[in-house]
Fold this protein.
Amino acid sequence: MNQDNPIIKLTKRSKVVSNKKMTLMEQFYLPAIFKGMLITFSHFFKKKTTIQYPEEQRPRSDIYRGLHVLKRDDEGRERCTACGLCALACPAEAITMVAAERKENEKHLYREEKYAAVYEINMLRCIFCGDCETACPKEAIFLTDRILPGNISRDNFIFGKDKLVEPMDARIDVSKRQTPEVLEFKKDKTQLHNK
Amino acid sequence: MDIEMIIYKLLLAIVILLVSLVVAMYSTLVERKFAGFFQDRLGPNRAGIFGILQPVADGVKLFFKEEFMPAKADKFLYILGPSLTMFVALLGSAVIPWSTSLNIGGKEFPLQVANINIGILYVFAVASVAVYGIMVGGWASNNKYSLLGAVRASSQMISYELAMGMSIIAIVMATGSLNLNDIVNNQHGLNWNVWHQPIGFFVFTICAFAECNRTPFDLPECEAELIGGYHTEYSSMKLGFYLFAEYINMFVSSAMISTLYFGGYNFPFMDQLGLSQNALALVGLVVFFAKISFFIFLFMWVRWTLPRFRYDQLMGFGWKSLLPFAILNVVVTGVIILLNK
């Protein structure tokens, strides 16, 4: 063996393969089968790894990229100004929006003079990359720790404002995704959309 | 036979059919649960408490699934296949002695539908018809993969039936009767055949696995090579019949193994307990079902332990190992009987 090239072992369980003839006992296979059955039987009583999903949830990272939310500001006004940067940043082209101009009596509803009359994300296209969140100059769209619920109809996967805008009485906490580093990045003037 | 007895036998037959169906139904759930346990997971537990409504849900799903029939299929045979399989699977339970007879009002009510002198031959006859269900189904589908699966099934079942018959012959020689009742009575108390015929027991059990098309002998269905096997072209409840018949077969096979080798309804110290005839019959029934449950568990245990054979290995094993062992067993049994005379 070459001294410079020791054999790398990935595990300690590797066995040397041999093509020796089986002994008579081994040819019967039954001892081996019983051994295997004992092994499976011992698993019968082992701790189960099942996670019972809706009731029980696997712990997720703080910055898990789940379902989107359109944030309101502290006065309950929608932050989105329908600039379209999220749709532009979206690599999957899942976001569509229709902009509208704010009326005089709607100042309590929308923070900016322009707002998204229609804001739709096609969840079947979305890849949950978080680029929309990064692109947003108004801190209006965030990804949350919520999980996309299943459905049996394709139409139900197009999430409009009714599902995306957070209700004021149940605001969604995204502070874990708003770390100082993220805020710093959002003000970074070398990024095109922050100029 | 008077009219009372005929009505009783009819009722008993219906009850046994229902029991086989319910046992088979719940075997599907138990199989899935056990598969989960063997693989460190929980298995189905959403439908009802502990998932006890899962078989019902499965059944409803199978009934409501799209019914598909290949355009070039032979319509009559296509429907005959699963029906035949199901029919034959249910027939086997007719001759099994479930327990000793009940004595109600001075009249004997045997817990066996048909006490015939050729019980074992009947079981074999029925078991060998089972292959037609699969063969006809595979042929009528007009699909080469189904046909290959069916051919595999028929050659496998015919090969293993030989060794199975040979292992039974040793028992028939030891008992001197083909009547299942005699065979069970001969194993009174703890005088079970498995102590006298261990090789026969192994051969019979292995062949029973092969006859039921259970892993490691589930060659007729193989997704990797045959897309599915003999039931590739079947959908909804016709497929359900094929899959369900497997569980009924498993139940009947377990009953046969218990009857032939583990004393059926006999249990140790059955004379010392001082039970009345009826109590003895009922306890015997419970004991018999306990034995059946154990063998059903064994079927599942083996299924989730062993991988499938390669086809040539399967044939080699049947013809070159099991059959010689079974014949050797017959010869040795014969010599021992001769020496004891």
